[in-house]
Amino acid sequence: MEITITGANYEKEVVQSDLPVLLDFWATWCGPCRMLAPIIEEIAEEYEGKIKVGKVNVDDEPGLAMRFSINSIPTVVLMKNGKIVKTSLGYRPKADIVAMFE
Question: Active-site residue numbers?
């Protein structure tokens, strides 16, 4: 299941998470983001209990986008223990994203 990450729930859902967190920074107007969305959704379902998947709409959450220095979308960030472990820019096939945390 994907979780919408906001400034209000970031600390609880990401920083305090026992699981690694895959954050998808996206926007509704972004074509590559829309292409990536079903892949992110599949990963959320297939790896439920192993990884948490969060979606950050950069238009709704500019503060979080700035905090992560997001300059282009989609950007996928893997977090562990509240720290950035890996980052992937642009559209990537599912195998590339899964390889970030396996």
Answer: 30, 33
Contacts 24+ apart (CB under 8 A), 92-100: 92/36, 93/39, 94/39, 94/42, 94/43, 97/22, 97/39, 97/40, 97/43, 98/43, 98/47, 100/22, 100/76
- Beta-strand ranges (E) seen in the chain are 2-4, 21-26, 52-57, 75-80, 83-89
pTM: 0.96
* 31 Cβ contact partners less than 8 Å away, ≥ 6 residues apart: none
Determine the distance from the C-alpha atom of residue 21 to the mean position of all C-alpha atoms in its chain, rounded to a whole number. 7
Looking at the domain that runs over 2-101, which CATH code has it been given? 3.40.30.10
Encode pLDDT of 31-56 as tens digits.
999 999 999 999 999 999 999 999 99
